[in-house]
Amino acid sequence: MDFEPSEEQQLLIDQVRRFVREEIIPxxxxxxxxxxxxxxxxxxxxxxxxxxxxxxxxxxxxxYGGPDIDIVTRVLLAIEMAxxxxxxxxxxxGTFGGAGLAQIFEANEDQKERYLYxxxxxxxxxxxxxxxxxxxxxxARAIQTRAERKDNGWVLNGAKIFISNADRAQYGxxxxxxxxxxxxxxxxxxxxxxxxxxxxxxxxxxxxxSSHYATExxxxxxxxxxxxxxxxxxxxxxxxxxxxxxQRIPYAAGCIGVAIAAHEMAIEWAKMRSTFxxxxxxxxxxxxxxxxxEIDIRTARHFTLEAAEKARRxxxxxxxxxxAKLTASEGGGRVVDRSMQxxxxxxxxxxxxxxxxxREMRIRRVGEGPSEVQRMVIAREIxxxxxx
Amino acid sequence: MSVRLRLDKPWRPLTPEEAARLPGQLGxxxxxxxxxxxxxxxxAGGRSPFGLRSELAREAEERGPGRQFRVEVxxxxxxxxxxxxxxxxxxxxxxxxxxAKNPPPLGRLSPA
Lengths: 388, 112
Known about the structure:
The complex is a heterodimer of chains A (388) and B (112).
Chain A: H1 7-28, H2 40-52, H3 71-81, H4 109-120, E1 126-129, H5 139-142, E2 146-150, E3 153-164, E4 171-177, E5 187-193, E6 199-205, E7 214-225, E8 229-230, H6 236-272, E9 274-275, E10 278-279, H7 284-313, H8 318-343, H9 354-364, H10 371-383
Parallel strand pairs in A: 1-4
Antiparallel strand pairs in A: 2-3, 3-7, 4-5, 5-8, 6-7, 9-10
Chain B: E1 12-13, H1 16-20, E2 27-32, E3 38-44, H2 51-63, E4 68-73, H3 77-92, H4 97-100
Antiparallel strand pairs in B: 1-4, 2-3, 2-4
């Protein structure tokens, strides 16, 4: 496969790169180092620019009014959008718009009217409620939140943890066990309005990522009607699993973007900084660190574009998505770590974005399926799914 | 596992002398009136030259006498700040008056 960008892709890459360097990075110089939001006036001004670029709502499918960007191009642009301080979790501070949760596109027409279209218009936000205190890596078995039949609907009881945006969202997609005897075939997906009685956002969960926190949820006799079931009863796990696989590709792209930014900083610093009468760039120890950075970045980029290309062609891409997520999150972490080492004491400070990337990149080895689960997925594919 | 949502340390007088005794670390703080009603919840972030010390010194200078404060050293000052604001709103139905003048984008919590 040839992963060199086409002429058209390169034009888009250059456009987004200029946007990040000329619009985003100068604003970040005035923000708190852990900020996740722009000043509202700056945000509105930049949204007008991304609309003028024809890239607003970049993840919205064409039939819903999106700009018709294929997944390979989307990966190339995601790599660019992440190349600033907040870029790993808030690429360009959301100025390219959002498409909401992928699952909501699978909703029925009534649900689309109530949730999808308001989300695409920017009127509603959503959260994704899967992980529970009992575990996140094996949701099919770990889900203990129960939904029981009552009065032409369902009563939910249980808890979720590490749920982003639940405190600010108007609705969320929540997975609950509807048949305890059926394992992964006993899970149903519900759409829950945030003002439903019995739905509670109990607390902020503080992590290494101070800018963009997660929350803990509780469902206490939370009744929802049958109209809130997304898809079919007891077939919710397929909805979750599809999302988890697809999400791994852009997740990897963000890691690559930050790794490139850290690597470029390290190269510049190594050429400028002298110790004991010699530029760092002339020292073999530093050269080798830079070479290892380059290899990690190229490896992750190759595998991520390979996964995207297979997805674009409609081919199976589960194993490729896992390899992409694994190489980008682990390799990206190594690149940021080496780049901090090259910067010495300055690399540890909040004066530079490296320390934020270091903290946030550590989460990427766990989020969206930890490295060990990715290896398990790959092992099953190459050894056969019957092996334990 | 116990999770402490609210600041419950004793109040200290908001004076330049008391502020000068604070560490230069990052964190969050609350300002209250003489009877302990919270007026403002603030953060000492990564751009504060001396963290909590410089933020509280500024507060003491701007607000004058008759105020109290308490602090929490916390590297997760952003998420802790949002949490304290949301917990205050859940407890009192509104933000502290000086935060309400320029409210940040906030979610809602319903702490147990």
